Amino acid sequence: MNWNHPHAMARRARAAGWIVAAVFGVLAVAFFRVQILSSSRYQLQSTENRLRAVPLPAPRGLITDRHGTVVAENIPGYSVALLAASPESLQTVLARLAPLVTLDSATHAGVLRRYRRAPTEPVVIRRDAPFDVISALEERRAWLPGLVIQSEPKRRYPQGDLAAHVLGYVAEITEQELAAGSFRDARLGTLVGRAGAEREYDPRLRGKDGVKFVEVDALGRTVRAAPEESTLEPQPGETIRLALDVDLQRFIVDAFPPGRRGAVVAMDPRTGEVLALHSAPSYDPNAFIGGIDPELWREIENAEDHPLFNRAIQARYPPASPWKLVIATMALKRGVVNIGSRMPIPCTGGMRYYNRYFRCWRVQGHGDLTLGEAIQLSCDVYFYQLGIKLGVETQIQDGVELGFRERTGIDLPNEYRSLYPPSTEYYNRLYGPRGWTSAVALNLAIGQGENAQTLINMVRFYAALANPRGAMPEPRIALGAPPVLRELGLDLDALGDLRHSLVEVVNRGTAAGARIADLRIAGKTGTAQNPHGDDHGWFIAFAPADNPKIVIGAVVEFAKHGSALAPWVNRVVARYLVGQDVAPTAAIESELVMPADSAPEPVPILPDTILLRIAPGDSIGRGPRRPR
Fold first, then answer.
1. Which of the given ranges, 169-178, 224-233, 282-291, 547-556, has the highest pLDDT on average?
2. Cα(328)–Cα(518) distance, rounded to whole angstroms?
3. Radius of gyration (Cα) for the chain, nearest Å?
4. What is the mean pLDDT of the chain?
5. pLDDT attached to residue 219
6. Cα angle 500-504-508, degrees, rounded to a multiple of 5
7. Contact 234, 208 (CB under 8 A)
8. Cis peptide bond prior to 281, omega within 30° of 0
9. pLDDT digits (tens, 9 = 90+) for 324-335
10. Residue 500: pLDDT above 50?
11. Cis ω on the peptide bond leading into residue 544 (within 30° of 0)?
12. What are the beta bridge partners of residue 63?
């Protein structure tokens, strides 16, 4: 075939023309699809590559006390973040940042991990950066591509450690919490409540973050901010008003025995509003702002006294003599005794039950007492016998019904459940049907044995004794919710008799050294046996006895005697009611008043004694063995 023939050349020219036309047709179709049909998609992709969203953190809501005093607020702060095109470019900028922003290996690894999870978002390098660091970074911005410095609200607690266990603190959400969905609408970098009211009311306090856009080049370097109209402003969180009285809280903290461990709770018995809550030792929540220093965290975490532990709602102690009012309530409700009833055996310093001898705290004995006098002088022998009359099953059943196996429902996270047997089957399972005896009733009757209560639970019960209706209020940290009350089931006459007996405890009984003139205070001391050292001290009081406006409970570890707590607790009561620091006066003279040298002493434990001891936080220990 002659390829140079004119007809062949014409055919080749036509074929080439068709090929060129086909190519241009394909290009035209592709152009039409890209420019017309898919223009919006490619435009969006281009915009996404060019614009990066920078979250604008919402200011957390304020927290105030009942009078409007701010206890948690926001002040201006600065955060340092990076926008990076790749992990390699991020590593490069981090190396350049090293002389100015110190990052340990764990923080460095966390930054890379967060970047991989959200590569198009700024990865926070440091929160709460000092102004001198911010200035140095701004001067070197040209050498730090993708640098994002922005002002953001920083949490501040102006009262310091005054109410740390009520307020809690905030910290950045962890990846585990984010994956688990522990906090709704949270993202990497969100500050969330870690404890206290900050955690309990986090959804209301956190607000809603905003967003702004910045334009970046192909290397991820910030070019300029996007137009202002594209910015979505953050919505601040809600203000939470607490029932807390800052002045009362401060007085309690100042009055608390220095260097001691324990807790105090003050409550309005009519509503359950928590006026003050102090756990000692405390901590400064400001130390957690911007991320706590690792060395300080190790120090707090390894501290022997566990400052983050809220002893008001988490520590569990044998309730000791304040429990005698619970036993008296059970007996009065069931008609077993009345306030003037006496027991068959007078107190001579102890009593024998089968082959065991149970001692009273007062070795000289108290003699023949009524129920009212036994409460006043905290006579163990009287309550041993009352415990026998009630029996183990009744004490357990009534204790469960009164809420001594449950949480109070206070609006603070991580409240511990009190420890109390659910039924006599508990003893059968633990010791076998023949491994225990009715002697359990004696231990339970004086607040020892298989019984460990939180301070908040005991204060709730005494609030019921103080409440005009004899109802237990649910403790509340925040204001606004209607009171939740549970009837105690005690008639008003019996309630009045118990209040009068508690007044006599302060006037002439175990708390006689804490009486305050012209102020009728009702209260009960207690000394809880402790196998790890000196006994723990209790004191719970309310006033004015005729129309109570405050109930306050305190427990101090290793205080030796409950009577040691009464004077300063009653000073707190007086401060709240009359606005002054009033010192206790002498006890009213009475033939029933204790000699000055007979303050409550730890009960000597003989080899055959079955009084049990439970340390704070311990599980229920061994029960009494059946006599052999």
1. 547-556
2. 28
3. 35
4. 84
5. 52
6. 170
7. yes
8. yes
9. 999 999 999 999
10. yes
11. yes
12. 72, 240
Q: What is the DSSP letter of 411?
A: S
Amino acid letter, 147: L
What would the pLDDT profile of 439-470 be if each residue is shown by its tens digit? 899 999 999 999 999 999 999 999 999 999 89
Separation of CA 510 from chain center:
32
CA dihedral 402, 406, 408, 413 (to 10 degrees): 180
Structure tokens given for 506: 């302060």
pLDDT of the residue at 108: 79
Q: Which two tokens stand for residue 208?
A: 């809603």
Residue 100: per-residue pLDDT: 82
The answer to whether the CB of 454 falls within 8 A of the CB of 402 is no
Burial label for 336, CB within 10 Å (0-12, 13-18, 19+), is: middle
Tokens of 523: 């209260």
3-state secondary structure 88-155: HHHHHHHHHHCCCCCCCHHHHHHHHHHHHHCCCCCEEEECCCCHHHHHHHHHCHHHCCCEEEEEEEEE
Percent of the chain past pLDDT 90, that is, above it, reads: 54
Residue type, 444: L
pTM over 0.85: no
- Residue with tokens 């009352």, as numbered in its chain: 386
Report the candidate in 195, 237, 232, 249 with the shortest Cα–Cα distance to residue 69: 249
Determine what percent of the chain falls in helix, strand and coil, rounding each to the nearest 5.
35, 20, 45
Average pLDDT over residues 528-557: 93
Beta bridge partners of residue 540, listed in sequence order: 524, 553
* DSSP label at residue 557: T
- In sequence order, the 6+-apart residues with CB closer than 8 A to the CB of 399 are 326, 330, 405, 420, 444, 451
pLDDT mean over 585-599: 43
- 377 neighbors 509 (Cβ within 8 angstroms): yes
Chain-centroid distance of CA 425 in Å reads 33
Strands 240-241 and 63-64: parallel
| Span 163-183, pLDDT tens digits | 999 999 999 888 788 888 888
Question: pLDDT: is 581 or 615 the higher one?
Answer: 581
Residue 433, pLDDT score: 85
- Give the span between the Cα atoms of 555 and 537, in whole angstroms: 6
pLDDT value of position 448: 92
Mode of pairing for the β-strands spanning 147-156 and 70-82 = antiparallel
CA-based end-to-end distance of the chain: 126
pLDDT reading at 283 higher than 50:
yes
What letter does residue 242 receive in the DSSP assignment? Answer: B
CB 430 within 8 A of CB 421: no
Mean pLDDT of 478-491: 92
CB 197 within 8 A of CB 414: no
Strand (E) positions, 328-479? Answer: 350-353, 356-359, 471-473
C-beta separation of 83 from 179 below 8 A: no
Give the other-Cβ count within 10 Å of 545's Cβ: 19
Amino acid sitting at position 160: G
Residues sharing a CB contact under 8 Å with residue 455, sequence separation 6 or more, in sequence order: 263, 264, 265, 311, 312, 313, 315, 317, 553, 554, 555
